[in-house]
Amino acid sequence: MYNDFYKFNESPFNTTCDPDFFFPSSRHEEAFSHLIYGIKARRGIVVVTGEIGTGKTTLCRTLLNRLDKSVKTALILNPNFSDLQLLQMIINDLGISYVKKTKLDLVGAITLFLIDESVQGHNVVVIIDECQSLNVRQLEQIRLLSNLETEKEKLLQIILVGQPELSEKLKNPALRQLTQRVSVHYHMLPMQKSEVELYINHRLKIAKADARLHFTPQAIETIYEVSKGTPRVINIVCDRALLAGFAKETFSIDHTLVQESAKEILSISKSYLSL
Question: Strand, helix or coil at 188?
Fold first, then answer.
């Protein structure tokens, strides 16, 4: 509703995981460096955890866009399937041809594909999001895939992404063999207070905002207090504040608009939870 008024070419604060809006905060850049290291050094299994809304999925999509073409990738966003279906999803995303659908056949097809890519000097990366929902059997299947290697390096790099519950799940004694194969583990934290204004202005710039539009210093202070630096919460509050600003036909988003928007969001959340 407010896009035309503020002259946006697209909504700046959507909660979708759009890599075009990726903001290189210190925490995100650090996480990115860990992922690149794990892939290039062929370290096998990399784990990235973080609270809801900290930007893990956006980070993964950005990573896919920045990897060299010699790196073949698969991104599994909803792994809540059987271990056999998980294998099928990985194969389909990598573009591997197969005929039979038994687990042995699928693993065989993946193995041949990995060997062929290795001969060509290519690397293969599988990113699995929302891994906190995987059960022990699925995670054990992932461990078995991580065993595919030559005498010198891993043929498949696996990035497990999930909420903090994933870290707790990996402490399960039944998964100790998998845990021992995790070479890199990074926990994503929210943005620092000093980065919130930069983040907001970054998204406004990407969306080609009218030059008159701005969030006041007090508004940004309030946004940080409400969000604690969590990108998704910042987006939700800013989106609602812009809607309120549009209703009042103002280009100055102040702390009053932000406070009213935050209260409205909190009220809606409480109503939803009471259903």
Answer: strand
